[in-house]
Write a structure and sequence with these properties.
The structure is a single chain. Helices cover 16% and strands 16% of the residues. It contains 2 helices and 4 strands. It has a two-stranded antiparallel ribbon. It binds iron/sulfur cluster.
Length: 86
């Protein structure tokens, strides 16, 4: 995602630089990826602790998942965590 130092964006301390213009959420490039902003137990109950400030890739991801409608990316992520597709 693009680096943002504007107020209202993702807090800088939760990101790592990729290039001079791009950053990623801390924890998302680990062998067992887990965004540093995620709280809870995957498959049980989780929440994004920066939901109103989440970055564009998160806003664009699986837009119908809250309605119980997945997509390919959503299904890959669920499968990675041993969860059934929506
Ligand atoms: S929605 Fe929140 S917890 Fe999930 S990847 Fe994005 S910033 Fe991290």
């Amino acid at each position: 995602m693009l680096a943002s130092r504007e107020s209202g964006g993702v807090p800088d301390e939760l990101t790592l630089p990729v290039t001079a213009q791009l950053v990623r959420m801390r924890g998302t490039d680990e062998a067992a990826p887990r965004c540093v902003a995620l709280r809870g137990e995957v498959g049980v109950a989780v929440e994004c602790t920066i939901y109103t400030r989440r970055p564009p890739p998160c806003r664009d991801f699986a837009p119908y998942a809250p309605l119980g409608i997945g997509d390919a990316g959503c299904e890959r992520a669920r499968r990675r965590h041993g969860m059934a597709p929506l």
